[in-house]
Amino acid sequence: xxxxxxxxxxxxxxxxxxxxxxxxxxxxxxxxxxxxxxxxxxxxxxxxxxxxxxxxxxxxxxxxxxxxxxxxxxxxxxxxxxxxxxxxxxxxxxxxxxxxxxxxxxxxxxxxxxxxxxxxxxxxxxxxxxxxxxxxxxxxxxxxxxxxxxxxxxxxxxxxxxxxxxxxxxxxxxxxxxxxxxxxxxxxxxxxxxxxxxxxxxxxxxxxxxxxxxxxxxxxxxxxxxxxxxxxxxxxxxxxxxxxxxxxxxxxxxxxxxxxxxxxxxxxxxxxxxxxxxxxxxxxxxxxxxxxxxxxxxxxxxxxxxxxxxxxxxxxxxxxxxxxxxxxxxxxxxxxxxxxxxxxxxxxxxxxxxxxxxxxxxxxxxxxxxxxxxxxxxxxxxxxxxxxxxxxxxxxxxxxxxxxxxxxxxxxxxxxxxxxxxxxxxxxxxxxxxxxxxxxxxxxxxxxxxxxxxxxxxxxxxxxxxx
Length: 467
Known about the structure:
By secondary structure, this protein is of the alpha/beta class. Helix content is 39%, strand content 17%. It is elongated.
């Protein structure tokens, strides 16, 4: 019978060769492969079995030999390390069968791939969606490889790296790390195993930022975790989601809060860099409200501003939030205000506003801020609409009439908007949250208030308690 069996013999340990492959080798008249791998199968060879080696990088010659021998009715087994279908001999054998229009039957026997062996030694890093990339550009142009690297990094795949480095390919792994750091956290777990399954085996676990490409060679397999992967007791774990699913099903969280929590996790995974928790919590709220990732570029917070304002709420020194328009007040969660004993108010509907505005030739929002400062000079002031109101507060601060606990500067528009936000910046002793440029809005000002009121939920990333 004219037949070639293409068999994966695993990563390099006799214990990792499957019984099906062992049985095939025992029946073989001829074993074709790279000579280094014969040592792993020699104990299974029957007397008289011929071993044919064509040398390193002679895969095509190896395949031709296999077809010539199979056409002589010999039982031929072609061996590949790992799995023969993953960067192995199987694709070449099938292509040559088509090229030769051969009637030789092909059978492929799977083997344990190097990435699987490495993964088992590293813990459980491939618990979710996975891709494999070879950095060898002998047959694939680097431009194609780089596109695949970018896709893997952007797609949040756990990524296995084969052929990471050689004497001639010294820079490609550096480029891969650079590309991954553009999309992934610097703390993303990275594990790598040299000579997996062999006596020389070395196992290391680190992070994307700390990973040193000089520590690997062509015998190393690298595994980069996804955004959910973490390191525990020296092992990398990529969760499948069972615990998250169980917790959400058994908790008392309302559906709205569950959706918001999932949204925050999604946003966090798509951020371009890591941020201190204080800024991150405000940023997540801003992006969740607007679906605008430009907030990552334009949301400014003083260092520790969100936490400082929350602490003022907690210790009772901040009791009032004043807003420029009623829409901001409406967007601040009533449950949070009640829970914390905070009063949120807007003076636009105050009967005194129209008279004050007319008498001083100012806008109604300016008049509202003047009245607010007289009664609540130490409030948290939140602006989502009117730059003139923000400018009025700045003037009153400079005159010593207002001493805000904090300022949220998010007016929106085209006239005096940028300038009003610039006017806030010099007040170094007042905690500030600013949406730079023309963007802003009542919804943004409100959600930033909510971020302050719920900062104690930030560490667990559990927004929406007061929905």
